[in-house]
């Protein structure tokens, strides 16, 4: 769940629900963005440490794990089946295909340029630029795997295409196109989870998520600034 972008309150609640329904009434958990420690709370059961090596945004996995833990709490499945189902979720649940992601990014970009800026004529070009920006982010995350570099290059690509589209008559307002096309790249879920973690009293994961989201936002801003400078 942490690897898939869940907030820490949900992680704590899920792990404690599983442990207590398995007979560990005094179980304790300490979870951060980079690791999780679970103690059974009894003398003959020690603590177990797990590291979090990668983090992506996959709300489908979070929802499935949450649903599965509630089925276990309701005694609909036993612990062995629960463990097997967890492994299947980790192995089988995949992201949406690329064409669906591109279509979603384009629809979000085009719709928001109309909602935010009341700019209907630029819907089509914003749709296209948003798709290209998401494609750049997608492939850089696969082949480069350098944190925040993909956001920087994707934002620079979006701003460059927006300016060139206006220059050659395909668009009307470059600023509006940039605003709409950047929306799929904005780290909205990390920012939301940072606030939720901080409000729930988790003063380690909350600020950590906030800083991570802030760096992503800065990468987007610097990418746009570089494009504006050169074009």
Would you mind describing this structure in some detail?
This protein has helices spanning 8-21, 59-73, 79-92, 98-117, 123-143, 149-167, 174-182, 188-199, 205-230; strands at 28-31, 35-42, 45-51. A hairpin with a 3-residue loop joins β1 and β2. The chain has a three-stranded antiparallel sheet with strand order 1-2-3, covered by helices on one side. By secondary structure, it is mainly α. α6 packs antiparallel against α7. The longest helix is centred in the last third of the chain and has 26 residues, at 205-230. It is elongated, with a radius of gyration of 21 Å.
**What structural class do the secondary elements suggest?**
mainly alpha
Mean pLDDT: 87
Using the CA coordinates, give the radius of gyration: 21 Å
Q: Let me know the number of strands.
A: 3
Q: What oligomeric assembly is this protein in?
A: single chain
What's the short version?
The protein is mainly alpha-helical. The protein has nine helices and three strands, in the order H-E-E-E-H-H-H-H-H-H-H-H.
Descriptive tags:
231 residues, mainly alpha, three-stranded antiparallel beta sheet, 9 helices, 3 strands
How is the secondary structure organized here?
Blueprint: H1 8-21, E1 28-31, E2 35-42, E3 45-51, H2 59-73, H3 79-92, H4 98-117, H5 123-143, H6 149-167, H7 174-182, H8 188-199, H9 205-230
Antiparallel strand pairs: 1-2, 2-3
Helix pairs in contact: 1-2, 2-3, 4-5, 4-7, 5-6, 5-7, 6-7, 6-9, 8-9
């Amino acid at each position: 769940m942490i690897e898939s972008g869940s907030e820490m309150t949900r992680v704590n609640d899920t792990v404690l629900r599983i442990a207590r329904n398995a007979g560990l009434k005094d179980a304790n958990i300490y979870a951060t963005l980079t690791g999780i420690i679970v103690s059974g709370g009894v003398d003959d059961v020690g603590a177990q440490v797990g590291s979090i090596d990668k983090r992506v945004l996959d709300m489908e996995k979070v929802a499935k794990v949450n649903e599965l833990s509630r089925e276990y709490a309701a005694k609909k499945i036993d612990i062995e089946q629960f463990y097997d189902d967890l492994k299947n979720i980790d192995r089988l649940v995949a992201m949406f295909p690329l064409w669906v992601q591109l279509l979603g990014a384009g629809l979000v970009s085009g719709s928001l340029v109309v909602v935010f800026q009341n700019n209907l004529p630029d819907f089509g070009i914003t749709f296209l630029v948003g798709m290209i920006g998401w494609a750049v982010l997608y492939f850089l995350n696969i082949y480069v795997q350098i944190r925040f570099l993909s956001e920087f290059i994707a934002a620079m690509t979006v701003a460059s295409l927006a300016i060139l589209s206006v220059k050659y008559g395909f668009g009307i307002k470059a600023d509006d196109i940039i605003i709409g096309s950047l929306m799929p790249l904005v780290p909205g879920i990390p920012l939301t989870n940072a606030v939720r973690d901080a409000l729930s009293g988790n003063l380690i994961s909350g600020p950590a998520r906030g800083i991570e989201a802030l760096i992503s936002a800065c990468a987007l801003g610097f990418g746009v600034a570089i494009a504006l400078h050169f074009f």
